[in-house]
Design a protein that fits this description.
The protein is α+β, with helices and mostly antiparallel strands. The protein has 3 domains: 15-262 and 432-488, FAD/NAD(P)-binding domain, CATH 3.50.50; 270-428, Flavocytochrome C3, Chain A, domain 1, CATH 3.90.700; 504-636, Fumarate reductase/succinate dehydrogenase flavoprotein-like, C-terminal domain (Methane Monooxygenase Hydroxylase, Chain G, domain 1). Helix content is 39%, strand content 14%. It is built from 18 helices and 20 strands. The chain has helices spanning 15-22, 28-31, 43-55, 93-103, 110-130, 162-180, 245-252, 299-306, 323-327, 337-352, 366-379, 387-413, 468-488, 502-520, 527-541, 548-568, 580-604, 632-635, and strands at 35-39, 58-62, 80-81, 145-146, 153-156, 183-186, 189-197, 200-208, 214-218, 221-224, 257-258, 263-269, 292-296, 320-321, 361-364, 422-431, 434-435, 448-450, 637-642, 651-656. The strands form 5 sheets. Strands 6-2-1-10-18 form a 5-stranded parallel β-sheet. A 5-stranded antiparallel β-sheet has the order 12-16-15-13-14. Strands 17-11-19-20 form a 4-stranded antiparallel β-sheet. Helix 3 (43-55) packs parallel to helix 6 and helix 3 (43-55) runs parallel beside helix 13. The relative contact order is 0.16.
């Protein structure tokens, strides 16, 4: 089949408005006769469920957690972008559009990105109306801070808890509709398959995770909002339960999977401390506003730090290498995540890492504390304040901005980050790839939509910080509720979708067959045994840098591991009870297929762009020496993969990307 992105005609600034003016609508009296399933209730799914119910649709919402409040969106820390120009520093819809396309290394669809920038301002108004406690300045106006990859301050924030506060806003909107009976909430339920009838998505098969019961649920349309697939690496900043099962199931039923190799390695994470670890912890990118990243200039100092013979505070200023400021003077510590991550890895690979494993750099707040302290001393008319007084005043400001993040770091590392620089290292975080969708957010299956991080999104090959929350809420509050109406306008005479049909029978039988296999297979190894092995292959050969030989090897190793998994996996417990190991088995089985497609996609894309860094494609000379080298002539497209059985047999479909409003050129943050 040919890909049709359904991008509206006309100038980019008018596309969304004109589209809404001519879209088909559903009469308010007819909406009550139409059912919509929303799988996932984080920021994207929660906002979509609440808005669709507010419009009058009957919504069934599914979450594998015990409450939507526990969605992984809660972990987002630093903020949410919006082009409101409250700081008067030159921001605009166009500049947010430009920064996002450039930040994504020119691998995103222009029309979708411009729409995202256009509706970003509405998100802030919506959330303020809900009572989200954004930070405010002295005059009571909403405050902004800067994030990586931009030269303006457009990030709205609530300390380091922005995701939590936004999620509570969406959850309160959901609760209003749950109380009215317009949302039927299914907590502790996991979608295990989608059901298609005559080519249209008409429902899902779900497992009640408490009782083990398999359930059928029907609807006129299905929306997938289940987040990304970062846990394919085992160790990531994602919650341990975050998974790709819903997305992978719809991929196997006909939804194309786009750009799986576009994954983000976040530069600001607490370093790995041992093999026993089950996840990694993110330190917000907002910290790079005030924290300076450095390693020792001299290899002897680095070795002393690794052996704990020296403290970072023992190293004088002249012997510190602020490598981001040195390499990228225009953006300094606020370069995009992919650039900062590779720079940190390069320093550590060269032997300048600062912890016992050699995989850490410093994030230092001493200069910020001193700067803020001196400013506060002037404001308070203090003459000749002592160093201690300046420190106390500066620390209070930093604590006000980032306090909960510093507290979290100290609890995990057992060091005071106000007095000793934080140690950070890149870790798997976000996935820009995902299910392919058109301008309407519909997949290649009719009536099947995908929103938020689960789709291949507006972020191209790299997401700028504070843009995930923006995209999730834009999709849920302001885009999907319009576009889904165009499809549902043809469903007003359909009537209730029955579940006692051959299509539901077949899907349920497939689900039960797989679950029975896991329970009855008398293998030798736990699910985690396989997940850890997969994660090591992915990190070593499909991680921060990739090459053809490693990718070919990874594909073979993952296939071999998958075959062993189906022979030797052992799942304790029973079917008809709460069984977390059974849940994990299904999720890891899907990761073992997705991982191979991931490597296949990375092998196909013989260029470096954004989070995808091919060692064969690097600038060899000039000002950009050592930086990623794109190949726009051959790879300026979205890679959408069609399922054909084995991941190795997946068929590539290309959506050629057109750049009419932004000049296509190599990124530079120098």
């Amino acid at each position: 089949m040919a890909l049709n992105s359904k991008i509206p005609e006309g100038p980019i600034k008018d596309k969304w408005t004109d589209y809404k003016n001519h879209i088909n609508l559903v009469n308010p009296a007819n909406k009550r006769h139409i059912d919509v399933i929303v799988v996932g209730t984080g920021l994207a799914g929660g906002s979509a469920a609440a808005t669709l119910a507010e419009l009058g649709y009957n919504v069934k919402a599914f979450a594998y957690q015990d409450s939507p409040r526990r969605a992984h969106s809660i972990a987002a820390q630093g903020g949410i972008n919006a082009a409101k120009n409250y700081m008067g520093d030159g921001d605009s819809t166009y500049r947010l559009f430009y920064d996002t396309v450039k930040g994504g290394d020119y691998r995103s669809r222009e029309a979708n990105v411009y729409r995202l920038a256009e509706v970003s301002a509405n998100i802030i108004d919506q959330c303020v109306a809900q009572g989200v406690p954004f930070a405010r300045d002295y005059g009571g106006l909403l405050d902004n801070r800067s994030f990586g990859g931009v030269l303006v301050s457009r990030t709205f924030y609530a300390k380091g808890q922005t995701g939590q506060q936004l999620l509570l806003g969406a959850y309160s909107a959901m609760n209003r509709q749950i109380a009215r009976g317009k949302i039927e909430m299914f907590n502790r339920h996991e979608m295990l398959d989608v059901v298609k009838v005559n080519g249209k998505a008409r429902g899902i098969i779900a497992r009640n995770l408490i009782t083990g019961e398999i359930e059928r649920h029907s609807a006129h349309a299905v929306v997938i909002a289940t987040g990304g697939y970062g846990n394919v690496y085992y160790l990531s900043t994602n919650a341990m339960g975050s998974n790709a099962t819903a997305a992978w199931k719809i991929h196997k039923k006909g939804a194309f999977f786009a750009n799986p190799c576009f994954t983000q390695i976040h530069p600001t994470c607490i370093p790995r401390s041992g093999d026993y670890q089950s996840k990694l912890t993110l330190m917000s990118e907002s910290l790079r506003n005030d924290g300076r990243i450095w390693v020792p200039k001299h290899i002897e100092d680095a070795k002393s730090l690794q052996q704990r013979k020296m403290k970072p505070t023992d190293i004088p200023e002249e012997n510190r290498d602020y490598f981001l400021e040195r390499r990228y003077p225009a953006f300094g510590n606020l370069v995009p995540r992919d650039v900062a991550s590779r720079a940190a890895k390069e320093r550590c690979d060269a032997g300048f890492g600062v912890n016992a494993t050699g995989e850490a750099v410093y994030l230092d707040f001493a200069a910020a504390i001193e700067r803020y302290g001196k400013t506060q001393a002037k404001i308070q008319n203090l003459e000749n304040p002592s160093k201690e007084k300046i420190y106390d005043l500066g620390r209070a400001i930093v604590e006000e901005k980032y306090g909960n993040l510093f507290q979290m770091y100290e609890k995990i590392v057992d060091e005071d980050p106000y007095k000793t620089p934080m140690m950070i290292y890149p870790a798997t975080h976000y996935t820009m790839g995902g299910i392919w969708v058109d301008y309407n957010l519909m997949t290649t299956v009719n009536g099947l939509y995908c929103i938020g991080e689960a789709n291949f999104s507006e972020h191209g090959a790299n997401r700028l910080g504070a843009s995930a929350l923006m995209q999730g809420l834009a999709d849920g509050y302001f885009v999907l509720p319009y576009t889904i109406g165009d499809y549902l306008s043809n469903e007003i005479r359909t009537g209730k979708i029955p579940t006692n049909t051959p299509e539901f029978d077949e899907a349920e039988n497939d689900v039960k067959e797989r679950l029975n296999f896991f329970i009855n297979n008398k293998g030798e190894h736990s699910v985690d045994y396989y997940h850890k092995k997969l994660g090591k292959i992915m990190w070593d050969k499909v991680g921060m840098s990739r090459n053809a030989q490693g990718l070919i090897s990874a594909m073979a190793e993952i296939k071999e591991l998958r075959e062993d998994f189906w022979k030797n996996v052992k799942v304790p417990g029973k079917l008809d009870e709460m069984n977390p190991e059974l849940e994990k088995a299904g999720r890891v089985a899907d990761f073992l297929e997705l991982g191979e497609l991931f490597a296949k996609d990375a092998l196909m894309r013989n260029e470096s762009c954004g989070g995808h860094f091919r060692e064969e494609s690097v600038e060899l000379d000039g000002e950009q020496k050592g930086e990623a080298k794109r190949n726009d002539k051959e790879y300026a497209f979205v890679a959408a993969w069609e399922y054909k059985g084995e991941p190795s047999a997946a068929v590539l479909h290309k959506e050629e990307l057109e750049f009419k409003d932004i000049e296509l050129k190599q990124r530079s943050y120098k």
